[in-house]
Amino acid sequence: MTLAPPQHTGGWLKLSPMNRRRLDNFRRNRRGHWSFWIFMALFVVSLGAEFVANDRPLIASYRGELLFPVLVDYPEDKFGGFEAHTDYRDPEIAGEIEAHGWMVWPPIRFANSTTKLDPPTPFPSPPTWTLTESQCRAAIVAHARGDAAKLPPGGGSCRDLEPEWLGTDADGHDVVARLIYGFRISVLFGLILAGVSSAIGIAAGAVQGYFGGWLDLTMQRLIEIWSSLPHLYILIILSAILTPGFVVLLTILLLFSWVSLVHLVRAEFLRARNFEYVNAARALGLSNAKIIFKHVLPNAMVATLTFLPFIVNSSISTLTSLDFLGLGMPPGSPSLGELLLEGKSNLSAPWLGLSAFAIVALMLSLLIFIGEAVRDAFDPRKTFT
Amino acid sequence: MTAAAPLLSVRDLSVAFRQGDETHVVVDRVSFTLERGQALALVGESGSGKSVTAQSIVKLLPYPAASHPSGEVLFKGRDVLTMSDAELRAMRGAGVTMVFQEPMTSLNPLHTIERQVGEIIALHGGRAASTRDRVVALLTEVGLADPASRLGAYPHQLSGGQRQRVMIAMALANRPDLFIADEPTTALDVTVQAQILALLKDLQAKLGMALLFITHDLGIVRRIASDVAVMQKGRIVEAGKTADVFANPRHSYTKMLLAAEPKGEAPASDWAAKPILEAKDVRVWFPIRHGFMRRTVGHVKAVDGVSLTVREGQTVGVVGESGSGKTTLGLAILRLIRSRGTIAYCGRGLSGLTVKQMRPFRRDMQIVFQDPFGSLSPRLSVAEIVEEGLIAQKTRLNAAERREAVARALADTGVDPASMDRYPHEFSGGQRQRIAIARAMALYPKFVVLDEPTSALDMSVQAQIVDLLRDLQKRRALAYLFISHDLKVVRALASEIVVMRRGEVVESGPAREVFAAPQSDYTRALFAAAFAMEAETSGVVSQ
To answer: I need a labelling partner for A139 at 20 to 30 A (CA). Which of A32, A240, A353, B106 fits?
Structure first.
């Protein structure tokens, strides 16, 4: 008998032919493909936020000793001060270290909660590149407080000011640093919420669909009752009782978000449990758990993966809107919603609202584009011409 | 148009499909002509391009993915391939009509019969006032029983055969010159198939239209067509008068097709052999529930009191038309669905055992399903599929030994063991069915339920699978329960036979006796339809 010609298998990943086709389809959607890489780059950068935007140097050398302030919290008495934590931005400490060694700073010398001590204008202060020469000079003169030694030669210009790319918010925090940390917390929150709620949703849908019958009926009705509860009011009530934080918010939102996948997975399982290969597996004596994981779940995973980017998206929007309403993360957390709220309360400082809007819009659009590409990749009828 | 020009003339027709960057030619320079009153059968196995040829005659292919690199289709002297959309619409449904294989999906489930048939008449210029009478006349013409009362019926209220009659009525509504039938009886039971064939032959003679009949079944060709064209891989390899081609096939492919009917004799039934599986009074009833309290008001008796014994090295054939409960019986015997009655394997009762207690028995009792595309998980490699049972049965083999066992099972069923790391979609239907058989045989079972294992396969492959099954049975003294609607295959394999209808046994006994002298009217009608394609008119079988 003749066999089908061998298929090219290879590359760094062993993929089944179906998955290879899907990967090719994903790549062929150029917008989605690019969005994926841009998003991954942003996400990886924001994961290392401490190394990008921090008020502590990455590496410092002090009196011949190599220090890693970004990783280790050195007490200030090491450098002749008396505080428990070293403030490397303090001119005294910085001067001491520079005199006996060197420091390598991250590109942005602010962490999300670093308060700028010498703003060129009252908070919220605008990005430094929008200031005029005379504003800069006035600011430098003001900081010198009459001490001529502190004045740079020539009276100072904008180049002598510490750069603030996107200005500061009303509390004197650097906006760029807040955006980087805020992006990280939003995406992590979205991914964790989507991941956990998919896991619960798939498990619930799988049990209902595979076993069917009374179990299915009962759980369906319970889910219907549960999902008809008014989410927002329960959220407000709960956040009044519990102190909101990352984990508390995650749990509260999880209470309602796991429902979204149940119906989809249940339908896939109802369909797949009557497939002949599932019956064949039963005839071979496989246990129900094995059949579910090996034969039926892969079918449901396609539907789940297709929906995942959209679930991440809605999780992020929910968190952002809760923060905007003041019901989300505790005050002082680097959240994009809070930055939007500040933009709303300080309409005279448009850099707040605009930059927060830009980053939220970028993040959500990228995810939507990725989601579209994933959906197309899993669509068996889709052909690219 | 000159009087000498044929009604339909297909010249050098090619069809190509574009998929991604590749172009596949599926029909390669096909030529044939068809006159009024002539019946031409295009015959070939699946993938030979016969349906695509038929669809390009009415230009129904998914353009622009499909294209015609060469050729022309002249209908009454005009090239169909260059017609405008308006001309095409005028031609379809009036000059040329088509009936498809699947009567379940060719009718719109939301409209009544009257509306669907009436629509065709109205579309091509019938008068509204007389439409209803015309519909009744048409339905009478196609032999639908009691047509006037069926006008308000929806498609789901009709049987497959009745639906196919309605489709034919729609196709005949405007008295076409050319009638294309694309496997119109493949989805139907044999008795109904015989009726539809008789009807088509009758109508063709009466109306004098040209008939283009697409089929894979040589028996049908012999029954209905005066001319035949044999297609293989997109080419017509042989054409001529049906009688000539059947008597002296010239091309090797035609010879192979003609020789492909399942052959061989089943072993004679042997009452002394050890009984492997005994089933007594097996019943599978599905409750019909009604009302708010879900009271059980009755039962659908899918299997009703069936008893049978399968002996070592022997095959019991279960035959019956669709809906007779034969597949349900097979599943019930393997305890894959709930049933009543007693089922004993080698004398040990299986009723009431839990999933865990059943597991050791699963090793000895296996099943092979009909659809080789549905019964293999597309996400597992062949090795993973075949070794699954070895893992589930805790055979204490390590990975290398399991691969060896898989290789042995594949070699036994005629699949190259070197291909065990490939995925099912890389194999043809026949090879996939061999893999499904290998999966069942890897555990060395004693009893195997074969649920229509050959029905989804091409004729030539069917014969190979039958040979393989018989060979395995001989070597391992296997007991088979062979479920099939295809009586030719059953005759080649079964030593005993059980004829089922509506969940009950109509007739049973040693296969030779039953085939030689069927006792009940139903069995006789079934055999006549299956072996001679003769339609039973006395009313023993339903429409």
So the answer is: A353
Alpha carbon separation from B307 to B276, B283, B421 (Å, rounded): 14, 9, 42
Alpha carbon of B336 to those of A26, A219, A280, B329: distances in Å?
Answer: 40, 25, 10, 10
Residue A381: which pLDDT band, with cuts at 50, 70 and 90? low
The amino acid that residue B318 corresponds to is V
Q: Which of A17-21, B137-141, B368-372 has the lowest mean pLDDT?
A: A17-21
Distance CA B113, CA B169 (A): 10
Residue B376 contacts A where some CB pair is shorter than 8 Å: yes
CB contact under 8 Å between B363 and A282, yes or no, is no
- Report the alpha-carbon distance of residue A34 to residue A245 in Å, rounded: 34
Q: Which residues 258-297 on chain A approach chain B with CB closer than 8 angstroms?
A: 275-277, 279-288, 290, 294-295
Which of B371, B388, B436 lies nearest to residue A286, judging by beta carbons? B388
* B379: chain A residues, CB-CB within 8 Å: 16, 18, 298
How far, in Å, are A353, B461, B474, B501, B515 from residue B520 at the CA level? 87, 32, 32, 12, 12
The answer on pLDDT for B2 being more than 50 is: no
Query: What is chain B's mean pLDDT, rounded?
Result: 85
Partner residue facing A283 (CB), from B65, B362, B419: B362
Torsion region of A80: left, alpha or beta (phi above 0 gives left; psi -120 to 50 gives alpha): left
**Residue A54 CB coordination number (10 Å):** 22
Q: Say yes or no for a CB contact (<8 Å) between A17 and B355.
A: no
pLDDT in tens, A304-343: 888 888 888 988 998 898 888 888 888 778 888 888 988 8
Residue B381's identity, in one-letter code, is S
The total of other beta-carbon atoms located within 10 Å of residue A16's CB is 17
| A56-72 average pLDDT score | 87
- Whether a cis peptide bond, with omega within 30° of 0, leads into A298 is no
CA distance B337 to B333: 8
Does the pLDDT at position B369 exceed 90? no
User: What CA–CA distance (Å, rounded) separates A25 from B269?
Assistant: 57
- CB–CB of A285 and B359 under 8 A? yes
